[in-house]
Amino acid sequence: MRIIDFKAMGARIRSQRELLGYTREQLAERLEVSSKFCSDIELGIKGMSLNTLAKLSDILHLSTDFILFGEQDADAAKADALLQMINQCPPCHRGELTVIIQAFLKAVSDES
């Protein structure tokens, strides 16, 4: 039987929230909970309902298994987070984003 480590779960949630650029208040608003409750979840003080877990999974683009137990391919989680950030970029600026990514990839390939 697997046991949920609420502090570790909260740390995973906070890490992904920060990676996606959400404030705690923004996440709480999207989850339709208070900022205090969101803080308590991130600190491992409180658990959450299945409905909140499902919403959190959708908002943060994480599997429920990863949120609860930390079981997910780390590279897949990072790729999902990058995709979410790209999707947040207004379509009119995606050309510039492409140029930035291409410059970054060239710079890191030149290091090799």
- The helix content is over 70%
Strand percentage lies at under 5%
Q: State the end-to-end distance.
A: 45 Å
How would you state the average pLDDT, rounded?
90
Order of helices and strands: HHHHHHH
> In terms of structural class, how would the helical and strand content be classed?
mainly alpha
Low-confidence stretches: none
Shape: globular
* Biggest pleated-sheet summary: none
Describe this structure in words.
The chain is mainly alpha-helical and 112 residues long. The chain is built from seven helices and no strands. Helix 2 packs across helix 3. The radius of gyration is 16 Å and the shape is globular. The mean pLDDT is 90.
Which key terms come to mind for this protein?
0% strand; mainly alpha; 112 residues
Task: Write a concise synopsis of the structure shown.
With 112 residues, the protein is mainly alpha-helical. It is built from 7 helices and no strands. The longest helix has 18 residues, at 94-111.
How is the topology of this model organized?
Layout: H1 6-19, H2 24-31, H3 35-42, H4 50-60, H5 64-69, H6 74-88, H7 94-111
